[in-house]
Amino acid sequence: MSTPSLLILPGDGIGPEVMTEVRKVIDWFGAKRDLAFDVSEDLVGGAAYDKHGVPLHDDTMARAQEVDAVLLGAVGGPKYDELDFSVKPERGLLRLRKEMDLFANLRPAQCFDALADFSSLKKDVVAGLDIMIVRELTSGVYFGEPRGIFEEGNERVGINTQRYTESEIERAARAAFELAMRRNKKVCSMEKANVMESGILWREVATRVGKDYPEVELSHMYADNGAMQLVRAPKQFDVILTDNLFGDILSDCAAMLTGSLGMLPSASLGAPMANGRPKALYEPVHGSAPDIAGQGKANPIACILSFAMALRYSFDQGDEATRLENAIEAVLASGARTADLMGPEGGTPLSTAEMGDKVIEAL
Amino acid sequence: MSTPSLLILPGDGIGPEVMTEVRKVIDWFGAKRDLAFDVSEDLVGGAAYDKHGVPLHDDTMARAQEVDAVLLGAVGGPKYDELDFSVKPERGLLRLRKEMDLFANLRPAQCFDALADFSSLKKDVVAGLDIMIVRELTSGVYFGEPRGIFEEGNERVGINTQRYTESEIERAARAAFELAMRRNKKVCSMEKANVMESGILWREVATRVGKDYPEVELSHMYADNGAMQLVRAPKQFDVILTDNLFGDILSDCAAMLTGSLGMLPSASLGAPMANGRPKALYEPVHGSAPDIAGQGKANPIACILSFAMALRYSFDQGDEATRLENAIEAVLASGARTADLMGPEGGTPLSTAEMGDKVIEAL
Ligand SMILES: CC(C)[C@H](C(=O)O)[C@@H](O)C(=O)O
Ligand SMILES: CC(C)[C@H](C(=O)O)[C@@H](O)C(=O)O
To answer: Which residue of chain B comes nearest to A158, CA vs CA?
Structure first.
């Protein structure tokens, strides 16, 4: 089999600096574990806009379609706030998701033992937390038509359309049930079926797909109650299945429960390609953090863990992924901390590069 | 001025039993504070469906339009889960909101000192919390057309429409700024302007309205970040302004931060009527809690505090509202607890009626 290919899109803000550390990790796997990757790098988001006037160049899009996996840093920043909607940094990311048809966004919300104190929640509420959120990523209100700002009488009206077909719901649901089979066999599907017809269809399809997974316990929850339950008792959940917009909010809520956003990776998966690998994009859950960009303060772990997810979901290297995850746990257990993980006791935080080096050492 | 009128709609589940306690409080104000109300009672939700086959009878709707304020308990229950969308208990509540044009939903998320330990969040994160969420309540995806489940090719598609006109956004924003002027003069407006055009219009109108309130500090936040920030550091907020669907989720998230859902009231306000009072409906944030309904276990305080909000916002009796709120604080400080407020230490909880009596005593 030929060397697997990886497209790296560092993007904006802290994206480039955390990605530098991921490159070290990729190189380590090539040198020490005989896992070489054919790595190329390109621009996305504001960085692409600055060079090309668009947040994703067509050539980059074409390249993303060809490679085995894409690894993205982060997009956006205040510099681009006044840009027209159609060329905002976010549109680059959304175009990748849509054109690669990455319908299943996997967002683990895991609380690392060494960091349980960082949560704003009580330790016993979050210690050992391990949820997987499966968010539909290519449809819903993010992409539904009609959309826009229109004149109506003597004022304007802003319109977006929530739209889900049965097959769109079905494939996202199937991804959730497949994951649940390898976890604790529970899926909780969240929508607003009490007020939205799209939620009624969602619930119906989730129920139908669930019949193919009799071992998995399926429950349904209104999304507002879901937000409450995440705050009240998050450990009741195993896999949460939800749509694009609810998933955006609920996964961020879940991420914050862990107290360490700088630690959380994500995978966005599509249909299998000719070589059997799914179309895939991996990115940290955190944003571009413009306030600390370029200062070497950012925590590279979320992005490194995103590469671990790539090892597991794109390259069938579950053991190597676990090796990397264990190395990170060991680094944390040893007390190594970037600035975002410093408690009130203080101390001197590690720089982005120092944290990357620690991970390499632990490997 | 004639005796103010109050329509009481106990609804389903624990609605009737908590409302019984509110009646005691209303009677007390009539007897002791010379604040008599002309009280009538009617059905809503499943209770109305059982009698009339619809979750809100036209006569009840007409009566709600005439009275000075409506006080609602809760709607819904598993018994009605299989009902057609158009006659579900929730439709009764949504019809009231829509036809009374109650565009500003005020949801305080307040953490009571005596109860700070109940939160799943660390005490220092929530102690003293006092946020007011202003949720637009009559538009957005809750009511936008087209909506429904349609055939498309050989499958079905679920569609809902997010729709906001400038004037709809403006009146909700104005309500938020007015409240901020009487509070800590900060408004944070939440939307997804990075992915939704309706969010762009929302942000633009909120900014324009803000110019009329130069003393108020206006900020904008994407709703997903809003959910994160609520969990991370909720005390950074004063007034949060948001749309119907985001408001549904974010206000429930905020409510759960306080740890005591059985304590939280809400007010839904519309335009001033001929007598100068706003159209108004008051209801607790908690639901119908079918699991404990009819057992005398429910906490009546959220519903009693909803009546306090009625005193303040409908009847210009801010001092009397404060009197009632202080009585409740005193009751809590004395250690009185319903089952939902019992800590792990245990003890014998008060019944719904006993808690109502304590409030009367404290008054
Ligand atoms: C950057 C933005 C477009 C994106 C989204 O809304 O999906 C982000 O919040 C996310 O969750 O990945
Ligand atoms: C009962 C339901 C229709 C309602 C809503 O979604 O608005 C409830 O969740 C609320 O927040 O008042």
So the answer is: B198
Place of tokens 């959120």: A133
Ligand nearest to the CA of A98: 1
Alpha helices in chain B, H assignment, sequence order: 15-32, 46-52, 58-66, 89-99, 123-126, 166-181, 197-210, 223-232, 244-257, 301-313, 318-333, 352-362
Spell out the per-residue pLDDT of chain A, length 363, in tens.
689 999 999 999 999 999 999 999 999 999 999 999 999 999 999 999 999 999 999 999 999 999 999 999 999 999 998 899 899 999 999 999 999 999 999 999 999 888 888 899 999 999 999 999 999 999 999 999 999 999 999 999 999 999 999 999 999 999 999 999 999 999 999 999 999 999 999 999 999 999 999 999 999 999 999 999 999 999 999 999 999 999 999 999 999 999 888 899 999 999 999 999 999 999 999 999 999 999 999 999 999 999 999 999 999 999 999 999 999 999 999 999 999 998 777 789 999 999 999 999 999
Distance CA B300, CA B14 (A): 9
Residues in A touching B161 (Cβ below 8 Å): 159-162
Q: How far apart are CA B172 and CA B198, in angstroms?
A: 15
For residue B334, give the DSSP letter: T
Q: Mind listing the domains of chain A with CATH numbers?
A: 1-110+261-363 (3.40.718.10)
Positions of A marked active-site: 142, 192, 224, 248, 252
Tell me the pTM: 0.96
* B120 → closest Cβ in A90, A122, A223: A122
- Dist. CA A145 → ligand 1 center (Å): 19
Contact B158 A257 (CB under 8 A): no
Q: Which two tokens stand for residue A228?
A: 């409450």
Peptide bond preceding A265: is omega within 30 degrees of 0, i.e. cis?
no
Closest Cα of chain A to B226: distance in Å? 8
Is residue A195 within 6 Å of ligand 2 at its C-beta? yes
Angle at the Cα of A96 (from A93 to A101), degrees rounded to 5?
130
Pairing of strands B130-136, B155-165: unpaired
Q: Which residues of A touch B125 (CB under 8 A)?
A: 120
Q: Give the pocket of ligand 1 (CB within 6 Å).
A: A 90, 93-94, 248; B 194-195, 224
Cβ–Cβ below 8 Å for B160 and A85:
no
Per the CB < 8 Å rule, is A249 touching B94?
no
